[in-house]
């Protein structure tokens, strides 16, 4: 298993040109399922995945991606979208699932369930509720003061929570790309795009944000621009 995973990770590359060969919708959909199993903050799953196969929509998205080769030659697109605005809906979903667990009074997990209920009932709204950034600013100064006396979670502003949603979505995107590679397909995560045009093309609400657009297909021999370049491992690895 280790050797297979190592092979998948090392063979995954950002492919800039794809062959004019169709890929399976079902396989890509299954890879998106793998994406949805990624770890994420508080299990709120503040993401959505748009699987674009329509030639008409693909042309519009490619245009919004400046018709770069990775977009222009793609067989399909997967657009990873963050939905921080859905925090309350997803909180209530988690809360209902936790409350529905059939535990006996002497079950050792009963205490954990009680803690989890309090977490979703009180803590999540405390962190995510917002009013034009004012509440987030109050949380920031509150954490600043309390942090003088004990450890406290400090990323509590409106922009901080936006970053949290994007980090979780990026983890999902990586799951997707590795899953695609394990199926013999290739991808290219793109950050160069006109987000407003993409949102309009996909009819996304104003509160939604594009995390990244992933082009999908089968790599062309000229689709990989040279050997993979990484800084020496000892420059980024620190054991304490």
Describe this entry's structure for a reader.
The structure is a single chain. This protein is of the alpha+beta class and 240 residues long. It folds into two domains: 19-85 and 160-222, 3-Layer(aba) Sandwich (NADH Oxidase); 87-151, no CATH class. Helices cover 47% and strands 11% of the residues. The protein has nine helices and four strands; from the N terminus they run H-H-E-H-H-E-H-H-H-H-E-H-E. Strands 1-2-4-3 form a four-stranded antiparallel β-sheet, sandwiched between helices. The radius of gyration is 21 Å and the shape is globular. The two termini are 29 Å apart. The mean pLDDT is 95.
What integer is the average pLDDT? 95
Question: How are strands sequenced across the largest beta sheet?
Answer: 1-2-4-3
Fraction of residues in H or I helices: 40-55%
Distance between the termini: 29 Å
The CATH superfamily of the largest domain is known as NADH Oxidase
From the 3D coordinates, which CATH architecture of the largest domain would you assign? 3-Layer(aba) Sandwich
Specify the structural class: alpha+beta
The gist of it:
With 240 residues, the chain is of the alpha+beta class.
Keywords:
alpha+beta; NADH Oxidase; globular
Structural topology:
Blueprint: H1 2-11, H2 25-35, E1 47-52, H3 55-64, H4 69-72, E2 76-82, H5 87-99, H6 110-128, H7 134-146, H8 158-182, E3 186-190, H9 195-201, E4 209-217
Antiparallel strand pairs: 1-2, 2-4, 3-4
Helix pairs in contact: 2-8, 3-9, 5-6
């Amino acid at each position: 298993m280790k050797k297979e995973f190592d092979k998948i990770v090392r063979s995954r590359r950002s492919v800039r040109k794809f062959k004019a060969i169709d890929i399976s919708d079902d396989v890509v959909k299954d890879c998106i399922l793998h994406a949805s199993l990624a770890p994420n903050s508080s299990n709120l799953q503040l993401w959505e995945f748009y699987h674009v196969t329509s030639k008409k929509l693909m042309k519009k998205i490619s245009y919004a991606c400046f018709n770069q080769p990775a977009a222009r030659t793609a067989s399909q697109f997967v657009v990873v979208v963050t939905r921080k605005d859905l925090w309350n809906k997803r909180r209530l979903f988690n809360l209902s699932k936790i409350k529905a667990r059939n535990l006996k009074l002497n079950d050792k997990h009963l205490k954990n369930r009680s803690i989890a209920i309090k977490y979703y009932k009180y803590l999540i709204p405390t962190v995510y509720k917002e009013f034009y950034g004012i509440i987030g600013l109050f949380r920031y100064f509150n954490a600043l003061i309390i942090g003088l006396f004990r450890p406290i979670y400090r990323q509590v502003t409106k922009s901080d929570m936006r970053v949290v949603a994007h980090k979780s979505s990026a983890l999902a995107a990586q799951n997707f790309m590795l899953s695609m590679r394990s199926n013999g397909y290739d991808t290219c995560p793109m950050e160069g795009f006109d987000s407003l045009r993409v949102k309009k093309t996909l009819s996304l609400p104003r509160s939604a944000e594009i995390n990244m657009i992933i082009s999908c297909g089968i790599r062309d021999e000229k689709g990989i621009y040279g050997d993979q370049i990484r800084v020496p491992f000892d420059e980024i690895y620190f054991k304490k």
